[in-house]
Amino acid sequence: MNELRRDPITGRWIIVLLGKIPTVTDFKVEPYTKNAEKCPFCWGNEAQTPPEIIAHRKSGPPNSPGWTTRVVPNKFPALRIEGALNKEGMGVFDVMNGVGAHEVIIDTPEHYKDFADLTSSEAEEVVWAYVARSLDLRGDKRFKYILIFKNFGKVAGASLEHPHSQLIALPIVPKRVLEEIEGAAKYYEYKERCVFCDMLREEIEEKDRIIYEDANCIGFCPYVSRFPYEVWILPKKHNSDFAGIPRDCVPNFARAMRDCLARIKALLQDPPYNFIIHTSPINGHERNDYHWHVEIMPKLAKVAGFEWGSGFYINPVPPHIAAKNLLSVKLDVK
């Protein structure tokens, strides 16, 4: 019989199908063809982007070839950093100016090299760029939340093929984040423990959903997975703020990200996916009872009317099966 499972953080329910489990080949992944011609993120095309904010470089002056990871303002930003918020009411509606920051982190100069293909040191450079920009932007007191995410593949919302991530600094705390924060706070108030730390202990005890583990990080298919082959990565030590990651933990976290994505790529024929770094709000809105983490969501199943109407998700691949299949992949990474 299928199972209903409740997320202890948000209270959301999901349905896990336990009957005929689809095989990897049952998921139809559209090939992601790439073409480096006229790509604005490749070496030599730096003039096609706004001037860089920061870059890790082997050689060359700013805004020229020689970089290994590069951060630039988004050419078509959802929010702009200039101006005041000017909050006001319009009847029952609240309105403010579209103030924020929207940046692009270009993972690598190599057009055909995805995050899953990076070496450990290359993945670490990308993570350091995330941390540096997060720390810098929190100096702007208008911002309450910094969202870092990656869209890979057209189905996942990527408009450019070249491997890149995005960062958006927001003047409000997003509703999705508030749901997690409020759920974690209620759990802590009742049990005097972090819900994420309890989840970690459960995963480590059961072991059958873990796909990556080292001294600092763990990657696993959560018991209440909304999507087939969904993976979460958490630091083992409680920490609410991603930008507060200890320096000696950055290599482990970068390797965890790279390895988990490499398993997903190899097993599922390079599927589209999104990953999102969930972290505490900033500038007076911090929550120590929260626990930062990354959610990786391959786009293998469509969200349709039942999901939109009920708020439930239907997952056709039980997470322990997903983890077993992901662990079967033999990685050849450096």
Helices and strands in order, then pairings?
Elements: E1 3-6, E2 13-16, E3 54-57, E4 67-73, E5 88-90, E6 93-95, E7 101-106, H1 120-137, E8 145-152, E9 164-170, H2 175-191, H3 195-206, E10 210-213, E11 217-220, E12 231-235, H4 250-267, E13 273-278, E14 293-298, H5 305-310, E15 313-315, H6 319-327
Parallel strand pairs: 2-15
Antiparallel strand pairs: 1-2, 3-4, 4-7, 5-6, 7-9, 8-9, 8-13, 10-11, 11-12, 12-14, 13-14
Helix pairs in contact: 1-4
Task: Provide keyphrases for this structure.
alpha+beta; 6 helices; three-stranded mixed β-sheet; 334 residues; ten-stranded antiparallel β-sheet; HIT family, subunit A
Task: Characterize the structure shown.
There is one protein chain. The chain is α+β, with helices and mostly antiparallel strands and 334 residues long. The protein has a single domain, classed as HIT family, subunit A (2-Layer Sandwich), CATH 3.30.428. The protein is built from six helices and 15 strands. The protein has helices spanning 120-137, 175-191, 195-206, 250-267, 305-310, 319-327, and strands spanning 3-6, 13-16, 54-57, 67-73, 88-90, 93-95, 101-106, 145-152, 164-170, 210-213, 217-220, 231-235, 273-278, 293-298, 313-315. Strands 3-4-7-9-8-13-14-12-11-10 form a ten-stranded antiparallel sheet, sandwiched between helices. A three-stranded mixed sheet has the order 1-2-15. Strands 5-6 form a two-stranded antiparallel sheet. Strand 10 (210-213) and strand 11 form a beta hairpin. The longest helix is centred in the middle third of the chain and has 18 residues, at 120-137. The protein is globular and about 60 Å long.
